[in-house]
């Protein structure tokens, strides 16, 4: 007869194995959508009515520039800087002096002197006032391109990229190397960025990767061959896509370009398919190694596409993104789903997009936000939110019918492929082998919930901080005392990702045609 202690030990092993298997099975069966979100208004002394402007986040601060003001005129060239209630590389939540300030446009590059940093002069060139431009961050710099100016015409600057240094608070510009191609001027285009490729002297960058990524470019730029590059030198990549070439354009451009910040060169990427219908510029986002775009709607609805952007132009050691040479070997950074024929050929791949009103998915819109977020462990989504309804709704045929909205107030999530070398990637691979749906490529409406745990101040004067209202008021956008509990219907705002699972948005135009002036922090989980 077996020893009782042995029997007990065996029973515990069996029980543990069964429990572990049950937990694993439960985890695999859990759905990855829908997500939940909290909307929190940012308390700040800066009531800044803006539309068609940009919001760029660098080290926990929001940099708001350009666009139209509440009167419909161009907002000027001042940079508005708002301390946000988010973590940054330099400060934690709530640390340091909360602030809001306005910085006039000053030109001139910083130069080293015996007494420290000096500038080549405050009379240097600065970007003209504009709207419909893009401004994205890489390192400590903000890179601005395109837009429409005072006379309503597109500003043509022959590929020039404007640079705002968030440390010196001065503007400078980068012109493309002579005799190299560049994109035409445009407005309402999309833009994304990365700090990669890193200089070879950067501690996170393999020297071979850097050399491979700019070898061909350096051959065309003799002036850069003898340059001594340091980790602090501005570097990275800006990608633009589509846009309207003139104020009278009825169809948007279909091209895409990448700009190497270090070498000052533009590279044309594969254009959107010729049969893509664009009545306005699309929304774009960069996540992992794919550039996603949702086309601005037309009479036949919207379309979603992605372009594979592997690591040959820049390499992201955290596998969050990679911008590419379109002729390179298109292997994903860390494995991933099976490629389509278009992806294998370095072309845009068309993804299914809900067209049936009864199917779950965002309805056609323009001037919306498209921002990548993560819930951790390699699980990534695209948030597609708010925006102007398109086509514009017609008047109700009956006074009893509710008028359709001019702007949307909803928020949707699209599940992108999980990173393969992560917990979510392994879980999805297991699900696929067992015939369990992974949720990849699906849409779900994000559930708005109340958040009453957090109050964080932002701005001078000790404001009320982040206000949290109940989810019951989310549909109307109002809460107790008539205050807003969420942004409500609007489009043409500025938005940027923050903290992985967060988004900050500012301003925009509401359903009454009014220009909004407050900011919002959105966190998903």
Task: Name a few traits of the molecule.
alpha+beta, single chain, 6-stranded mixed sheet, 11% helix, 5 helices, 30 strands, Kelch_1, 525 residues, Gal_Oxase/kelch_b-propeller, iron, 4-stranded antiparallel sheet, Kelch-typ_b-propeller
Task: Provide a descriptive summary of the structure in words.
- Residues 458-493 are annotated as: Disordered.
- Keywords: Iron, Repeat.
- Pfam families: Kelch_1 (PF01344).
- The chain has one domain.
- Residues 13-26, 90-98, 206-216, 218-229, 312-336 and 452-476 have low confidence and may be disordered.
- Strand 28 and strand 29 (502-510) form a beta hairpin.
- The strands form eight sheets. Strands 1, 26, 27, 28, 29 and 30 form a six-stranded mixed sheet that branches. The protein has a four-stranded antiparallel sheet with strand order 2-3-4-5, with no helix packed on it.
- The protein starts with a helix and ends with a strand.
- The protein contains five helices and 30 strands.
- It has helices at residues 4-29, 207-220, 222-225, 341-344, 423-433, and strands at 36-42, 54-58, 61-65, 79-83, 100-103, 110-113, 116-119, 134-138, 141-145, 161-165, 171-174, 190-194, 237-241, 256-260, 265-269, 283-287, 290-294, 304-308, 349-351, 365-366, 369-376, 379-385, 388-389, 411-415, 443-445, 447-448, 490-491, 494-498, 502-510, 515-524.
- The chain has 525 residues and is an alpha+beta fold.
- Helices cover 11% and strands 28% of the residues.
